Amino acid sequence: MSDKHHPKKRFGQNFLIDEAIIKRIINSIQPTHEDALIEIGPGFGALTNKLLLAQPALAIIEIDNDLVAFWHEKMKIHRQLQIHHQDVLTVDFKALALTAAHSLRIVGNLPYNISSPLLFHLFSFDDVIHDMCFMLQKEVVDRLCATPNSKTYGRLSIMAQYYCDIYKLFEVPNTAFKPAPKVTSAICRLIPKKASARYPIDPVKLAECVRLAFTMRRKTLPNALKGLITLEQITSLGLDPKLRPENLSLLDFCHLAELT
Predict the structure, then answer these.
(1) Which domain holds residue 79?
(2) Do 68 and 189 reside in the same domain of the chain?
(3) Are 102 and 35 in contact (CB under 8 A)?
(4) Which of 13, 16, 51, 136 could tie 46 with a disulfide, CB 3.0–4.6 Å?
């Protein structure tokens, strides 16, 4: 880490410094020269320098002016490096895919403060993404992988599992970072499902049904979905109206969304 740069709380910056963890992440990604690799939030290159060995045409997305200046200096050595200086939540990944020979492989140590909005943003580009390997707060990874009838199961679980197959790879202690965050992290891999492998439902309808349901997750289904789906419609699906949103599977929500 540069002595001139101090991690910025507003960007959720915690820089990875543990070489053993970095090696495990690279082994999990297994980058190749053929990959259309994009790294979100490269920091000072803990992962980036290893990724560049495999793919010199790596693209990085960074919002921090100081870090962008750092990477522009690095471009004097890594001439094929591509720098996108912008908020990742505004990136059009479909446009990036148009310049790539293959579907995108996206990696990164995601800022904790925007992880959920960023995941939803990425899901909207699922048709141009091959896979995603991210470091996230362990709690977020647990939510991504959660199953019905658990406290961590909710809106993020359902929508993520609609779009992707998700694998929790390993956990990362806070001592692997500088500054050390107050939480444990985890590495996960998300592989977008082909459209033919997903239930044929309008994702906008599904997202609205799930959003409304988990706005009041402790209420029973008729109360949680009031104004969107009737009691009669719920029972027509063979669902017990005494159930709560956290008791329903992804498929159950797809069936409910079809009725809206």
Answers:
(1) 9-197
(2) yes
(3) yes
(4) 16
